[in-house]
Design goal:
single chain; about 0% strand
């Protein structure tokens, strides 16, 4: 009986369905289309009402932006920190194998020392609220801070960084990567003859005090920033400061044994592994895409443009350095190609967000020529720089900072969002004048501070290893180990 009822119900439903279909067919095509359209509208209106209830709120969009900006800043920080590996490889390859462990150890420990120095003292001096000369709040990352709030909503002791909407930890991580770079620059210029302890102490002092002071003047709302000095990612703040420290260190230390003869002849002391140096150069080139685009500290449309101006300058620097060294020596020198890349990168760092692609190429071309001529110049005055750090970072840091005052174009970044138009864009000398003032002020500050600290260390500990230790190699004398143990014979006979 139950089966018969079930079959009967199914037949009735089928008959009703057929009846509805027959009635629908009797309607005109216009009515049939209207019914279908009405059904679709009814369904869509129901879906729209549901979707309206789930639209992202302003708070959700804000949180998403903070997340994306933070991710970008952390990734950029990692790229800049990776540059320490590039410096380690480049400096080790450019120097003799008997000093390989020493170069690797210095480039490894320097970032550890820089992190602690910047965390405890440097970050507060550079970005903490204070006066136009130095910051005086926020030591050890302590103090009030409601990052990622920005602008007028920010409440804390690091007001100079209230323009970037990322957490304080992200701000610190990015800036400590820069601080470590400034200290690493010094390592190559004083290579193969400085005591390991002196280098560690000098790095701590550099990152704790005068690098942050210069940084406060420019990026911390200090007096140079108030005057309109611009350095987007650190041609002066990072590279010139490191370059001045390197120059004074190399001059006070004196040249390596056997580098210069009494008849004014320069003797080459070739590096032992140009393959390693070349790999280091590639790592530095890649790392610079964190250095310059990362300085936006936000995900915005300028990142790709900054990356491209950076790459163009590096390419131009490599090309012109190759041509210049080829013209002078008759051979295309690999070490000059490497330093040409780095010179172009250093030179574009100050202006990468402010100049056209054509200007970026010109800036890189001039940097490539300058770095080759500078290497020969410093050799002519017996300043021994085994890796060319002074020529790359100091000379082209100065050139790159000047380039802001020559090529800055407000059509690219908008009036009020960067420097005044450069001399070659507007014919106005205002911006180039401020840039020259900043270069001079930072140069005096960095040179005097470096000289004081180098001379103090020399008086207290002695800067230079003994002649016997230098001839044997710092790997054995300073570290008691070899980088290539078992591959070569007696290290005392090694170059």
């Amino acid at each position: 009986m139950s089966k018969l009822r079930l079959v009967s119900k199914r037949l009735k439903r089928k008959n009703k369905s057929n009846s509805f279909q027959r009635k629908l067919k009797k309607l005109s095509p216009n009515w049939q289309a209207s019914i279908v359209l009405a059904s679709i509208i009814l369904l869509l209106s129901g879906y729209a009402a549901l979707a309206q209830d789930n639209l992202p709120t302003e708070n959700m969009v804000s949180e998403l932006k903070v997340g994306l900006d933070t991710l970008w800043v952390v990734l950029a920080s990692v790229l800049v920190i990776l540059m320490n590996a590039g410096f380690a490889m480049l400096e080790t390859g450019f120097c003799r194998r008997k000093n390989a462990v020493n170069l690797l150890a210095k480039n490894l420990i320097v970032f550890a020392i820089s992190t602690l120095a910047f965390w405890s003292v440097g970050f507060a001096l550079m970005f903490g609220d204070g006066n136009s000369v130095f910051g005086s709040n926020g030591f050890f990352l302590n103090g009030s801070d409601n990052s990622p709030a920005i602008g007028d909503e920010y409440q804390g002791v690091y007001s100079s960084l209230n323009w970037t909407g990322v957490p304080l930890a992200a701000k610190f991580l990015f800036q400590v990567a820069f601080a470590g770079t400034a200290a690493t620059i010094v390592s190559g210029a004083v290579a193969e003859r400085i005591k390991f302890l002196d280098f560690i102490l000098f790095s701590f002092l550099l990152v704790s005090f005068w690098y942050p002071l210069v940084g406060h003047w420019v990026w911390g709302g200090g007096w140079l920033a108030e005057m309109g000095f611009w350095d987007f990612a650190g041609s002066t703040v990072v590279h010139s400061v490191g370059g001045w420290a390197a120059l004074l260190g190399a001059a006070i230390l004196g040249p390596r044994i056997g580098k210069y003869r009494n008849d004014d002849m320069t003797l080459p002391l070739p590096g032992h592994n140009l393959g390693l140096a070349t790999l280091g150069a590639f790592i530095l080139w890649i790392g610079w895409f964190g250095f310059n685009p990362g300085s936006t500290m936000a995900v915005d449309g300028s990142i790709a443009r900054i990356a491209l101006t950076t790459n163009l300058a590096a390419a131009a620097g490599a090309t012109l350095a190759t041509a210049t060294s080829w013209f002078i020596t008759g051979k295309p020198d690999l070490s000059m190609i490497i330093n040409g890349i780095l010179a172009g990168l250093v030179a574009i760092t100050a202006s990468c967000a402010f100049v056209s692609y054509q200007s970026a190429v010109l800036i890189g071309c001039i940097a490539g020529i300058l770095v080759v001529l500078s290497v020969f110049f410093f050799d002519s005055i017996n300043i021994d720089d085994p890796v060319g750090a002074i020529s790359v970072h100091l000379i082209n840091g100065i050139w790159g900072t000047l380039a802001v005052g020559l090529f800055a174009n407000p059509d690219i970044y908008g009036n009020g969002n960067g420097p005044e138009a450069g001399l070659f864009i507007s014919g106005d000398l205002a911006q180039i004048g401020v840039q020259i003032l900043g270069i001079a002020a930072v140069g005096v500050m960095a040179a005097v501070s470096s000289a004081i600290f180098w001379l103090a260390l020399k008086a207290i500990f002695g800067l230079r290893v003994s002649e016997e230790e230098e001839l044997q190699g710092l790997d054995i004398g300073e570290h008691g180990m070899e980088a290539y143990s078992g591959f070569y014979g007696d290290t005392s006979r090694m170059n």
